[in-house]
TrEMBL record:
Residues 5-66 form the HTH tetR-type domain. Coiled coil: none annotated. It comes from Enteroscipio rubneri. InterPro entries: Homeodomain-like_sf, HTH_TetR. GO terms for molecular function: DNA binding. Keywords: DNA-binding. It comes from the Bacteria. This is HTH tetR-type domain-containing protein. Residues 29-48 bind DNA.
Length: 175
C-alpha cells in the first residue's frame, strides 16, 4: 500500500473506532479524528474532502479489496458514469454469470457479508435514523447499487423489455 493509502487507512481505522466507541448522540467530527491521531485538521483535508467522503472511502476500499482478491476472474462492475462517483475506477460488484443467463451471485454476497458482520457496530451506527446519523452512506449505496441490480435483472431477462404494468392486485378480501 502506498504512503497515501496507508495514511488514508489510518484515518479510516481511527474513524471506525471512534464511531463504535462514541455515544449515539454525538457525530464524529474531523476534529475528533485528528485529535485521536494527533495531527492537524489540514492533514485530514489533504486526504478527504469531509467525513462523508471518508465514510464512502471506507466502504469502497473494503469492497475493492474483496473484489480484487477473491473475484479477480469475474467481470468487475464499476459505478455508472452519471453517478460521478469519486472512486469511479474502483469495482464494487462482480457479475458471476452462468451459461444459461443466470447470475450466481452467492459467493460475492457471502464475501461482502463477512465485511458487514465483522464491522457490524460501525455499520449499525452508519445507518442510525437519528439526527446524528451518517445518512449519506445509505443514499450513496442506493445510488450505487440500484442501476447495477437493474442491469442484472435485464441480463437475466435476456435484455427483453418488461411488460407494462396494467393492473394492481388488491390485498382486500372480498366477501
Amino acid at each position: 500500500m502506498s504512503v497515501k493509502g496507508t495514511r488514508r487507512q489510518e484515518f479510516a481505522d481511527t474513524f471506525m473506532h471512534l464511531v463504535t466507541e462514541t455515544p449515539c448522540n454525538h457525530r464524529v467530527s474531523v476534529v475528533d479524528i485528528t485529535n485521536a491521531i494527533g495531527c492537524e485538521r489540514k492533514t485530514f483535508y489533504y486526504y478527504f474532502e469531509n467525513v462523508d467522503n471518508l465514510v464512502i472511502w471506507i466502504f469502497r476500499s473494503a469492497f475493492k479489496k474483496i473484489i480484487e482478491t477473491q473475484f479477480a476472474e469475474y467481470p468487475q462492475v464499476k459505478p455508472h458514469p452519471e453517478l460521478q462517483d469519486p472512486y469511479d475506477d474502483w469495482p464494487f460488484y462482480v457479475r458471476i454469470e452462468t451459461e444459461d443467463r443466470f447470475l450466481a451471485q452467492g459467493p460475492y454476497f457471502k464475501a461482502i457479508t463477512y465485511h458487514w458482520v465483522d464491522n457490524r457496530v460501525y455499520y449499525a451506527n452508519m445507518f442510525r435514523t437519528d439526527a446524528n446519523s451518517y445518512n449519506n452512506l445509505f443514499e450513496y449505496l442506493v445510488n450505487l447499487y440500484v442501476p447495477t441490480i437493474k442491469d442484472d435483472i435485464l441480463f437475466m431477462l435476456g435484455n427483453r423489455p418488461t411488460p407494462p404494468r396494467t393492473s394492481s392486485i388488491s390485498l382486500r378480501s372480498t366477501m
